Amino acid sequence: MKRFMIILLSAALLAAAGYSVWRVLTYDDQSNQVAGHPHYLNGKNITEMTAYDQHGKPQPLTELLTGDINIINFWASWCEPCNREMPALVNYNHDKPGHVTVIGMNLQDKELNRTAFIKKYHADYPILTADASVRKNYKINNLPTTIFVNSKGVVLKTYLGELNEEKVKVLIQQIEEGE
Asked: Is 37 a member of any domain?
């Protein structure tokens, strides 16, 4: 009986080792692939979203949706991934195709922190602010969150997490190709 248990245990260990080797040899690194995320907003119209300019004046979102594809990035100054991605968004804004616009949507910041953040990164695209009701009503539970919206205000794609220029280009290309 003891010998049978040793043989069975050895076979199980060999099978586990074999499986591990097979997984390493057949591993397909998909970390360079980018995809949007399932989200409550996908397919919804957001033109009723309440946003404010830097002076606290209500800003109709429809006036800013001037591109065929509009990138709306929700961020906060205290958010580390937001800090890491902001330079990439600013750079992308300078080199973006003419049919794409970038809009920043600040959440949960005091004016002083928001202004310092914008100056630090030289963000030169429209920056709006939104209150907690936007975060709640539109289910913006993670920062940063970036939504890709058409000119009519319909959300085409949502990306949760930190972006870089390459990811933005891939997501735009996916939208253009109807993915």
From this structure: no
- The reported pLDDT for the residue numbered 20 is 59
- Rounded-to-integer distance, Cα 60 and Cα 52, Å: 8
Give the H/E segment covering residue 9. Answer: helix 2-25
Buried/exposed 156-178: b ≥16 CB within 10 Å, e otherwise: bbbbbebbbbebbbbbbebbeee
- Looking at the domain assignment, is residue 166 inside a domain? yes
**Res. 59 pLDDT band, cuts 50 70 90:** very high
Closest CA to 89 of 174, 167, 36: 167
Output the six-digit token pair for 126. Answer: 């429209």
Whether 146 and 71 have beta carbons less than 8 Å apart is answered as: yes
User: What's the rounded Cα separation, in Å, for the pair 102 and 62?
Assistant: 14
Q: How many domains does the chain have?
A: 1
pLDDT of residue 120: 97
| 106-120: average pLDDT | 95
Mean pLDDT of 67-88: 97
CATH number of the domain enclosing 102: 3.40.30.10
pLDDT at 2: 81
- Token pair listed for 57: 């004046």
